[in-house]
Amino acid sequence: MEEKWMKEALKEAEKAYGKLEIPVGAVIVKEGKIIARAHNLKETKQTATAHAEILAIGKANKKLNNWRLLDCDIYVTLEPCEMCMGAIISSRIKNIYIGTLDPKKKQKIDIEKYKKEYGANIKVGIMKEESEYILKDFFKKLRKNGGKDVN
Predict the structure, then answer these.
(1) CA 82, CA 143: separation in Å to the nearest integer?
(2) Is the pTM of this model over 0.70?
(3) Which residues contact 60 (CB under 8 A, 6 or more apart)?
(4) pLDDT by residue for the chain (151 residues), tens digit each?
(5) Is 53 part of the annotated catalytic residue set?
(6) Which of 14, 21, 43, 53 is catalytic?
(7) Structural element, H or E, at residue 29
């Protein structure tokens, strides 16, 4: 089941890729159904907080008419930044599924801290190769084309 939802998050990452956004996607699942999906839109919206996770959380809040996303799971293709982890924890999402860790980050998320302090369940490496590939391919093409295009 984890791969099924991560594939959906990867579809969101592909949408970001097509918009020249860093290709990260997220989906939020409740009771076996996707209730929200999003991808990075920082460049499109020119907003620093337009990360896939933040946008998905906002959509899920609206769908459930509640800031608490109890009994929800989030699937994200790339390790969340501190802002996004804060939002995930604050929204009460307990199950966090991550495609790949961010190779550029010096400080990886402290999985044990989030487990101990917040009761979060974090699983890393779901469709790891696919999650890494889309990022590497994006940046490789972006560098090749002088930062202007990936096609």
Answers:
(1) 26
(2) yes
(3) 28, 30, 35, 36, 69, 72, 91
(4) 899 999 999 999 999 999 999 999 999 999 999 999 999 999 999 999 999 999 999 999 999 999 999 999 999 999 999 899 999 999 999 999 999 998 777 667 777 788 888 888 999 999 999 999 999 999 988 887 766 665 5
(5) yes
(6) 53
(7) strand 25-30
